Amino acid sequence: MEGISFYSIKEIFETCPYTKRKLECLRKERNKILLTTDWCFLPDAVIDENKLNAIKICRQELRDFINRLLNNEIKCKIIDDDFEEKYFPKLIVDGTAQTQQEFL
User: Could you say which DSSP state residue 78 is in?
Assistant: First the structure.
């Protein structure tokens, strides 16, 4: 990946107003993804225990994702058009990465 610069969010947060808007969009997207699996935790939901555990892990990773960005634990190019595709946590079921939509 020569020629691609990766930045910490803190490095560009103060100088680029786009970064704040991008973080807001990321939070909205994260929340939308979390909503797609809320039903899995209803008392009458029928779901395989392994799949439920994978969903729990993915949901935690999604919740932690923004904090990890803001704490410089993830270096990335936040202005990429396909940022979410590249960096958002994926649901791993049976060793295969899936989006929440593909899984459900």
Answer: T
Which of 37-42's residues contact partners 24+ apart within 8 Å by CB, and which partners? 37/100, 37/104
Q: What is the pLDDT of residues 48-66, one digit of tens each?
A: 888 899 999 989 998 998 8
What span, in angstroms and rounded, lies between the C-alpha atoms of 76 and 70? Answer: 11
- The reported pTM is 0.67
Does residue 4 surpass a pLDDT of 70? no
Instruction: List the chain domain ranges.
Output: 9-103
CA dist 46 and 33 (Å) reads 20
